[in-house]
Design brief:
Elements (H helix, E strand, L loop, with lengths): L1 H6 L4 H4 L8 E7 L8 E2 L7 H9 L1 H17 L1 H17 L15 E5 L20 E8 L8 E3 L4 E3 L6 E4 L6 E3 L7 E8 L2 H8 L5 H7 L1 H11 L2 H7 L4 H8 L1
Antiparallel strand pairs: 1-2, 1-3, 3-9, 4-7, 4-9, 5-6, 5-8
């Protein structure tokens, strides 16, 4: 991944963004910001071979599968909510490509390049509001001196060695990471799913505007469900006793 990042050419938008000043490439299926239906993110011509190479790496496939399995283990109800919606999406729109051969319920991934990735405090407001975001650290660094994950709202600084995985509700929790030392390497690989995908599926594979035009009654029912959607989503999270049962 380090070699891929060094070989690629990046646009200013990819180099400087709300998450920090480092190159990042997003790949996968998303929906939002004016799209009329879910689509596979466009990859710049100069980066296609690099991205395809990363998606084909056995090590990254294993990381994606590990994050997917951890999600299913620690939040099974939320995981099944993701799986039901994404399976329905790909069944309805089979031309959309599943990254990592469908081994993950997450529809998108981000590769954060450069030897010393340091993210600014941010949240991912386009992700599913009550959904989880998989973050995995890659590199060679001493986690005692840098690379820590900082979650502002809950006032936590977490030691985060290379190979670590965390699943967090990144749409609501602002987060960042501490820089590593100058001679060290720290990158990250993340997986996520846009909230717009779930809304599109819930609307019968339509935008809310099309739903309103085609079925005003269903549109009104959707508006009523929105009032309790946050509570519904949080109810999908596991409680401590649920986790203990899974482990036992």
């Amino acid at each position: 991944m380090l070699a891929a990042g060094q070989a690629a050419m990046f646009s200013d938008q990819q180099l400087h963004h709300k998450r920090g000043d480092f190159p990042t490439v997003n790949v996968g299926v998303t929906h939002g910001r004016g799209t009329v239906e879910p689509k596979f993110l466009r990859i710049d011509d100069g980066q296609k071979n690099i991205v395809e190479g990363l998606l084909g790496l056995r090590s990254l496939k294993q990381m994606a599968l590990f994050a997917n399995t951890a999600f299913a283990t620690w939040a099974p109800n939320l995981y099944h909510y993701y799986k039901e919606h994404t399976d329905s999406l790909y069944s309805e729109m089979p031309w959309l490509r599943r990254i990592f051969g469908g081994k993950s319920v997450f529809t998108c991934a981000a590769f954060n390049f450069r030897p010393r990735v340091c993210t600014k405090s941010h949240h991912n407001q386009l992700n599913l509001a009550f959904g989880w975001h998989a973050i995995q650290a890659i590199g060679r660094f001493d986690p005692r001196y840098g690379g820590h994950l900082v979650i502002d709202k809950i006032k936590k600084i977490i030691e985060f060695p290379a190979g670590s995985l965390i699943l967090i509700p990144s749409a609501t929790l602002t987060h960042c990471n501490v820089p590593v030392r100058k001679h060290e390497i720290c990158m990250s690989f993340t997986q996520y799913c846009a909230g717009g995908i779930f809304r599109y599926v819930n609307n019968g594979f339509r935008t809310k505007e099309v739903l309103h035009a085609e079925d005003p009654i269903a549109h009104q029912e959707m508006l009523e469900k929105k009032k309790t959607r946050c509570q519904m989503g949080i109810s999908l999270w596991s409680k401590l006793e649920d986790i203990v049962k899974v482990v036992e």
